[in-house]
Amino acid sequence: MRNASKTVVGVLILLLAAFIVVEVSGGLGFLGRVSGTRNACERGNAFACYKLATMYEIGQYLSVDLKEAELYYRKACSMDTKWGCEEAKRLEERKGRSN
């Protein structure tokens, strides 16, 4: 029974270490998330375009790029999504205030 306890403790330590590495590195497979989201957007998924725009706007997995954010919000808007249009307008107003 003692060997089983050591094995369980060892596995838990390895899982904890893996979790810490994932958290420190910014998430598991972040490049795959970005490319998968971009591919879905290019295939006509409005939510993916909206998510990609948000990633660019807040710098999630990508560098902040408000031009790209606006581009993808407008792409979501072109797919007849009210929220894509609202966010494109909000971002345009935000850019106008900063000029």
Which second-level CATH architecture applies? Alpha Horseshoe
In sequence order, what are the helices and strands, one letter per element? Answer: HHHHH
CATH topology value:
Serine Threonine Protein Phosphatase 5, Tetratricopeptide repeat
- Percent of residues in beta strands: under 5%
CATH homologous superfamily heading: Tetratricopeptide repeat domain
Key attributes of the depicted protein:
99 residues; 80% helix; elongated
Offer a quick outline of the entry.
The chain has 99 residues and is an all-alpha fold.
Structure notes:
By secondary structure, this protein is mainly alpha-helical. The chain has a single domain (28-98), classed as Serine Threonine Protein Phosphatase 5, Tetratricopeptide repeat (Alpha Horseshoe). It contains five helices and no strands. Helix 2 packs across helix 3, helix 3 (46-58) runs antiparallel to helix 4 and helix 4 packs antiparallel against helix 5. It is elongated.
How is the secondary structure organized here?
Blueprint: H1 2-24, H2 30-42, H3 46-58, H4 66-78, H5 82-98
Helix pairs in contact: 2-3, 3-4, 4-5
